[in-house]
Design goal:
The complex is a heterodimer of chains A (528) and B (595). Chain A has 528 residues and is an alpha/beta fold. Chain A has a single domain, classed as Amidase signature (AS) enzymes. Chain A is built from 19 helices and eleven strands. In chain A, helix 2 packs antiparallel against helix 3, helix 10 crosses helix 12 and helix 10 packs across helix 13. Chain A is globular, with a radius of gyration of 22 Å. In chain B, a hairpin with a 2-residue loop joins strand 1 and strand 2. By secondary structure, chain B is an alpha+beta fold. Classes of the chains: A alpha/beta (528), B alpha+beta (595). Chain A: Subunit of the heterotrimeric GatCAB amidotransferase (AdT) complex, composed of A (QRSL1), B (GATB) and C (GATC) subunits.
Chain lengths: 528, 595
């Protein structure tokens, strides 16, 4: 039952094959078994069981709220959850219990979903590995999959396999690990530069970033307001569409959501024929750092579309190479601004120093934020200084416009959907990953995903195949703004063609104790 | 201190200006001649008062002051600028705070339509160009009562620009002439108010009240077209009246709904502008005038003594009457402005640009707002002058006092007396009594609320200084507490008009009315037997005996001191308990004297 998709388990609930409480308990027990993955920061067991009980009553009375009623979900720990600690994996918000639900959380709860817990991330979502939060790194469930382990046995160079676990990617790595390890059926991530799509690709999931303005950001603790969107992590495209259907729509609490009506429920039409479709391949995305395996899969995917009758065109997004540096300026500037509210006065961490308000601010912020956050605040404040503003922020905004226009031009040339890699390669081992600092890593890892956020477009990462090492590789589809439905329709067609294998975690689920014993040394901290 | 007369010779013309004690500058003679343009090319203000040191020496350069104001007016609205919290003065601390106001992580601003309408209305009333598209920015600084670490404001593209405010300063021998002046308005921007900090020095802690945090403000930025405290005070008073007429702000300075920061510098005319200081948080019109004049004089003295002016923020100490450096920041503050990413551009429409089928709830139509503008103070004054033949300066006084105009109009409605008579009674007698009362109120409170020193004279000259620096709501007394109702005054004026009582008796009746004993003027007159003495014979008899009783006065008169007759008139009136008509007494006395 746990290995099923959201759509399948929803059908099972409706048919009475399983009750919400049974389902909830199974997930909770698996969360405990997979505690070593460090996917969850907070497990909201009591809340989930109570919600399951209510859902069960509804099913008994034939008053189900819909596809999401009784479905266990997880939420990244940068969404405000009423009465449930929301930390952003930072000392700054340790112990902070918000008094309100983010709009997206409220919408899921209103649909009867069960909130299993809050998932791990990089501190304030700043990172691409889910390795830089105060609760320690998230482990990629694929590290323990049969597919990966068998390949590693064949490799004579493999060292101590238990210390060689893989990162999930990030920053929504906890959400990705939670869905990938079957502890829930869907999870919310956030996506500012690729933070949902990147871990989705590394964990073999569908990672969807909706159009900016389609889904409310109210209650999402911001990284970059002008680029953040709530992301959706699921096992298949249909599941993502179901969740999007529940989340999309204008929110009076978020003035950047759009009022144009969208089709609801968010049903994806079946696409039997791709011959009328035009797929664009951005030539600038073919870079030397791209692994040969990803490149070859990308090329095969393009061939697949072409062989099924679609038009496949090479397109140019000429300003792509400026995206990283442009993002750096805009992101750090907004970070500097957004983080100003964390001063220790109203909520969150406060230091013991009380000689003056200024001294208290300084010490609170030094203690509360990690080096990555502090570094970005410092850079951002530099870019916003009066003497620098024109040279950095204003220029970056202009470049952002050029990048957005690149996409507009591509779509105006007749392209329906762009096809690109999601990441440079498959997930790397943690020890490998931390050889580079956060900034370098973020710059490398967001290269295919970031420009989409600058342009506000919808994009989805679809798992395509396993690498030679037995690890998932994802490809990304990018759609026109607010053509999220069309994008997902194409993605679903593609998903059906590629038949990505299910992660084989039997060993993990059957005998977690062995794994757990080996992991005692790791810095795992799970809060109940 | 006597007002030293100064002279400055420039551009081949001789202009004479005066400085009076207290730093307020009053122009005794309106200069003639070409428009000067030595202050930032301005042309709206034709003359500038000039200053000098206490002991002007021959050949010395004179100083001119340049004053610009930033005025923050709290928007009168039910809820805050970006949140649904209620706006209310003196609510229990932190009782009006939404999650957004407290800057809880993840909360977002939602613009309040009422505040936008108030800004458009104010912009139109101040002759501004309304920007069809305006933007919001974040202004960053750390302060305990600014929970987000930034204020949302409109730095780059404000909602209204390039307006003007016309106000009147008094001049002439009795300060009774009103000279219209204009100050240019640079911009009007929407922004958030901050919370309030309460510093407890004993326990060295600061208490924060966020009730005010996020309340909508209109920041009105004036160009530096002003040159002294009085000009600034009258301009702000006029703005206050306009805001109150529009209903866009209650603009009560005592409750902090109108706050003024003044940028002040001095220089020698024809030379570059001097270094300016900013005097912050002036919360009464009187202190605004005092602070500006003090600061101007301080800068002049500093420069005359070889010192220099620092670009700094100062505060006005109202008890000591001086400005002091706030010494709050090391070096200049960089606010690191950034566009507010959570608010799309604010787009306004007019009749021509309004999209067809637009939801009226979703759009704001400038032309529609223009149609709903109420009568502005300047138009009201003009109407009063036209309709009732009153002097312009009287119309200023009527408007300056909250509620006085309404009172006046109610009296006019009910009385047969001439409007001029009504004007005189309302502005002299009635206002005089009110002001005496108010003085007592404010002394008891010990607050810094401005109160006009009462000048309750019998002359026909109304309180012109009320026009210049009045910020007092005497009519909080009026509505509920004024002991004299418009009907009572109307009745009293009717008695006067029908010559039932003398004007002296009328004053006595008024005094009785003020005691609040619930009697009508008619009742008082009959109880006190104040009816005018119509018996000429009796009056002649009385005059005769009075002349006999005071031979010395009669002698004086005959020696050629015509004013001595007043003494006799007074004595006769007293003897009749003010029931006789002084004109008739005078006539009888003169007749007797010349016979």
């Amino acid at each position: 039952m746990l290995g099923r998709t959201l759509q399948e388990v929803s059908a099972a609930l409706k048919q009475g094959q399983i009750t919400p409480t049974e389902l909830c308990q199974k997930c909770l027990s698996l969360i405990k078994k997979t505690k070593f993955l460090n996917a969850y920061i907070t497990v909201s067991e009591e809340v989930a069981l109570k919600q399951a009980e209510e859902s069960e009553k509804r099913y008994k009375n034939g008053q189900s709220l819909g596809d999401l009623d009784g479905i266990p979900i997880a939420v990244k720990d940068n969404f405000s959850t009423s009465g449930i600690e929301t930390t952003c994996a930072s000392n700054m918000l340790k112990g902070y219990i918000p008094p309100y639900n983010a709009t997206v959380v409220q919408k899921l709860l209103d649909q009867g979903a069960l909130l299993m817990g809050k998932t791990n991330l990089d501190e304030f979502a700043m990172g691409s590995g889910s390795t830089d939060g105060i609760f320690g790194p998230v482990k990629n469930p694929w590290s323990y999959s049969k597919q990966y382990r068998e390949k590693r046995k064949q490799n004579p160079h493999s060292k101590n396999e238990d210390s060689d676990w893989l990162i999930t990617g990030g920053s929504s790595g906890g959400s990705a690990a939670a869905v990938s390890a079957f502890t829930c059926y869907a999870a919310l991530g956030s996506d500012t530069g690729g933070s949902t799509r990147n871990p989705a690709a590394h964990c073999g999931l569908v990672g969807f970033k909706p159009s900016y303005g389609l889904v409310s950001r109210h209650g999402l603790i911001p990284l970059v307001n002008s680029m953040d969107v709530p992301g959706i992590l699921t096992r298949c495209v249909d599941d993502a569409a179901i969740v999007l259907g529940a989340l999309a729509g204008p929110d009076p609490k978020d003035s950047t959501t759009v009022h144009d009506p969208i089709n609801k429920p968010f049903m994806l039409p079946s696409l039997a024929d791709v011959s009328k479709l035009c797929i664009g391949i951005p030539k600038e995305y073919l870079i030397p750092e791209l692994s040969s395996e990803v490149r070859s899969l990308w090329s095969k995917a393009a061939d697949l579309f072409e062989s099924e009758g679609a038009k496949v065109l090479e397109v140019s997004l000429p300003h792509t190479s400026y995206s990283i540096v442009c993002y750096h300026v805009l992101c750090t500037s907004e970070v500097a601004s957004n983080m100003a509210r964390f001063d220790g006065l109203q909520y969150g961490h406060r230091c013991d120093i009380n000689v003056s308000t200024e001294a208290m601010y300084a010490a609170t912020r030094r203690e509360g934020f990690n080096d990555v956050v502090r570094g970005r605040i410092l850079s951002g404040n530099f870019f916003l200084l009066k003497e620098n503003y024109e040279n950095y922020f204003v220029k970056a905004q202009k470049v952002r416009r050029l990048i957005a226009n690149d996409f507009v031009n591509a779509f105006n040339s007749g392209v329906d959907v762009l096809l690109t890699p999601t990441t440079l390669s498959e997930a790397v081992p943690y020890l490998e990953f931390i050889k580079e600092d956060n900034r370098t890593r973020s710059a490398q890892d967001d290269i295919f995903t970031q420009a989409v956020n600058m342009a506000g477009l919808p994009a989805v990462s679809i798992p395509v195949a396993l690498s030679n090492q037995g690890l998932p590789i994802g490809l990304q589809f990018i759609g026109r703004a607010f053509c999220d439905q069309q994008l997902l329709t194409v993605a679903r067609w593609f998903e059906k063609q590629v038949q990505f294998p299910v992660i084989q975690l039997q060993e993990l689920m059957d005998d977690c104790s062995a794994v757990l014993e080996n992991e005692k040394s790791a810095s795992v901290s799970l809060k109940q | 201190m006597a007002a030293p007369m100064l002279r400055w010779v420039g551009r081949g013309r001789l202009w004479t200006f005066a400085r009076v004690d207290g730093g307020s500058c009053h122009r005794r003679e309106a200069p003639t001649g070409s428009t000067s343009n030595w202050i930032r090319g301005q042309s709206s203000v034709a003359q500038q008062p000039l200053y000098t040191t206490q002991k002007p020496r021959k050949g010395e350069h004179k100083w001119a002051a340049v004053v610009g104001l930033e005025i923050h007016a709290q928007i009168s609205s039910n809820s805050k600028l970006f949140s649904g919290s209620q706006v209310r003065f003196s609510a229990p601390p932190n009782s009006l705070v939404s999650f957004f106001d407290a800057s809880l992580p993840g909360t977002l601003p939602v613009l309040n339509r009422r505040c936008v309408e108030a800004a458009v209305m104010t912009g139109l009333a101040l002759n501004c160009h309304i920007n069809k598209k305006s933007l919001f920015d974040r202004k960053h600084y750390f302060y305990a009562d600014l929970p987000a670490g930034y204020q949302i404001t409109q730095q780059r593209l404000p909602i209204a620009v390039n307006g003007s405010l016309t106000y009147g300063v008094c001049a002439g021998k009795k300060q009774s002439q009103v000279i219209p002046k204009t100050v240019r308005i640079k911009q009007i921007q929407l922004e958030q108010d901050s919370g309030k900090s309460l510093h407890d020095d004993l326990r060295s802690q600061t208490l924060i009240d966020l009730n005010r945090a996020g309340v909508g403000l209109l920041e009105v930025v004036l160009e530096p077209d002003l040159s002294c405290g009085e000009e600034a005070a009258t301009a702000v008073r006029e703005l206050q009246l306009i805001l109150q007429a529009l209903g866009t702000s209650q603009a009560n300075m005592a409750e902090g709904q109108l706050r003024v920061d003044a940028n002040i510098s001095v220089h020698h005319p024809g030379e570059p502008l001097g270094v300016r200081t900013e005097v912050k948080n002036l919360n009464s019109i009187r202190f605004l005038a005092k602070a500006i004049d003090y600061e101007i004089q301080r800068q002049i003295n500093e420069l005359e003594n070889g010192g220099e002016i620092l670009n700094e923020t100062r505060s006005f100490h109202y008890q000591l009457g001086c400005t002091m450096s706030m010494r709050d920041k090391e070096g200049k503050q960089d606010y690191r402005f950034m566009p507010e990413p959570n608010l799309p551009p604010l787009v306004l429409y007019d009749a021509t640009s309004l999209p067809a089928g637009a939801d009226p709830q979703q759009v704001i139509n400038i032309d529609q707002i223009r149609e709903t503008l109420p009568e502005l103070p300047s138009v009201t004054r003009e109407r009063l002058v036209q309709q009732y033949g009153m002097l312009l300066e009287h119309s200023f006084t009527l408007l300056n006092e909250v509620g006085l105009l309404e009172f006046f109009q109610n009296v006019i409605k009910e009385t047969r007396a001439e409007p001029k008579k009504v004007t005189s009674w309302v502005l002299n007698t009635f206002l005089g009594y009110l002001k005496q009362q108010n003085l007592a109120v404010s002394e008891r409170c010990g607050s810094d609320v401005y109160t006009e020193e009462s000048k309750c004279s019998d002359s026909e000259q109304p309180f012109m200084d009320a026009l210049t620096v009045c910020d007092v709501n005497v009519f909080s007394l009026l509505g509920a507490a004024s002991p004299v109702t418009p009907s009572a005054l109307a009745e009293l004026l009717d008695l006067l008009d029908s010559r039932t009582i003398s004007s002296a008796a009328a004053k006595e009746v008024f005094e009785e009315l003020w005691k609040r004993e619930g009697k009508t003027p008619g009742q008082i007159v009959s109880e006190k037997q104040l009816e005018l003495m119509e018996d000429r014979g009796a009056l002649e008899q009385l005059c005769h005996s009075m002349m006999e009783a005071h031979p010395q006065v009669v002698m004086d008169l005959k020696k050629g001191n015509p004013r001595a007759i007043n003494k006799l008139i007074g004595l006769v009136r007293k003897a009749t308990q003010s029931r006789a008509d002084p004109a008739m007494i005078k006539e009888i006395l003169e007749k007797k004297l010349s016979s």
